[in-house]
Each structure stands twice: as C-alpha cells, then as structure tokens.
Amino acid sequence: MGAGKTTVGKELAKALGVTFYDLDWYISTRMRKTVKEIFDERGEDGFRQIEHNMLHEVAEFENVVISCGGGTPCFFDNIQYMNRQADTIYLKASPDVLHHHLSIGKGVRPLLLGKSPEEVKTFIHQQLQEREKYYLQARHIVDVNRMDNFEKIAVVVEEIRKILV
Predict the structure, then answer these.
(1) pLDDT digits 0-9 by tens, 83-136
(2) Cα separation, 20 vs 9, whole angstroms
(3) Residue 20: which H helix or E strand, with range?
(4) What is the pLDDT of residues 32-61, one digit of tens each?
(5) Pseudo-torsion of CA 40, 44, 49, 51, nearest 10°?
(6) Sign of the alpha-carbon torsion through 98, 95, 145, 18
(7) Strand pairing of 64-67 and 140-143?
(8) Neighbouring C-beta atoms of residue 103, cutoff 10 Å
(9) Could you tell me the end-to-end alpha-carbon distance of the chain, in angstroms, rounded to an integer?
(10) How far apart are CA 9 and CA 23, in angstroms?
C-alpha cells in the first residue's frame, strides 16, 4: 500500500504499449462493488478469496501489466502463481516513504479506515514485517524510495522496462 504500484504500472504499460489492469479496479468492475463494500460485506477473508479468483482470471490475459494490491502476494499460493505466470516486481519502499505516500493519497484504504496517523505508521511497519517474506519472492526488486516526482517515476519505469526486455 502506497508504493506506487498503480502509478508505475500505468506508466510501464504505456512504455511497453500494452494494457494496464489494476487488480482492485478489476475486482470492483467485475463485482460491481467497491473494495470497501466487499470488505464490509464479506470481511477480509471473503475479499481475499475473490481477489485470488480474479487474479487467476486477469493473469490469463496476454500482453498486460497488472498491479496487485499489497496483500495479494500474501494469500493462498498467489506469489508462486504470479511467478509462474509472469515477471513479478516488488516495488520496495521504506515504511516512512509508504506512510508519506499514503498521507498524501486520496484513495480509500479499507485496512486504514479509522486509524490515527500514529496507528497508520504502526500498521505499515507491522504489515511490512509480515508481508515482506512474500514480496521478496518476486523475480525482481526495484527500490522506489526516491520516487517522489514524475521524472523519478519515469526513471523507475525505464529501469523496469530494461529488466523486462
């Protein structure tokens, strides 16, 4: 959450001349509900099952860039499945950078609702500790700690494009 997966994914897809899919957007479109509504109705377990199914669906598309939610690789066999299907990239950022990005972001994050800024910081640290073992299984790791403007986003996109070509 907050690493820039959607921003980088969109720009990477443009650079490669392929279609971009954000998995959360895809889920919302297919389910005709927001991620928050799905969380509210089915809880996190219900959402993760839907996410798993939709990941398998969208991963069958050809010539696409897919941006997954921060939890996607951590449930079921998702990271192994993604690695079998495609090149996977972990956009690695420090907890402080993630917190800054989330504090200026406008999107609704169901897992952060009702948390104070200090609770969000603690949550980010805990989530990263729990999830990084999955993230580190990605085929490629790209540092995005300095990605704070469009020029730097372009540098990250170019780095990823070189990895993939």
Answers:
(1) 999 999 999 999 999 988 888 776 777 778 888 889 989 999 999 999 999 999
(2) 7
(3) strand 19-22
(4) 999 999 999 999 999 999 999 999 999 999
(5) 80
(6) negative
(7) unpaired
(8) 11
(9) 27
(10) 11
Query: In whole angstroms, what is the distance from residue 135 CA to residue 137 CA?
Result: 5
Residue 18 contacts residue 64 (beta carbons within 8 Å) = yes
H-only helix segments in the chain: 5-16, 23-31, 35-58, 78-85, 95-104, 117-135, 150-164
pLDDT digit string, tens, across residues 123-146: 999 999 999 999 999 999 999 998
> Burial code of 75-98, b = ≥16 C-beta within 10 A, e = fewer?
bbebbebbeeeeebbbbbbebebb
- 17 vs 11, 38, 153, CA distance in Å? 10, 32, 17
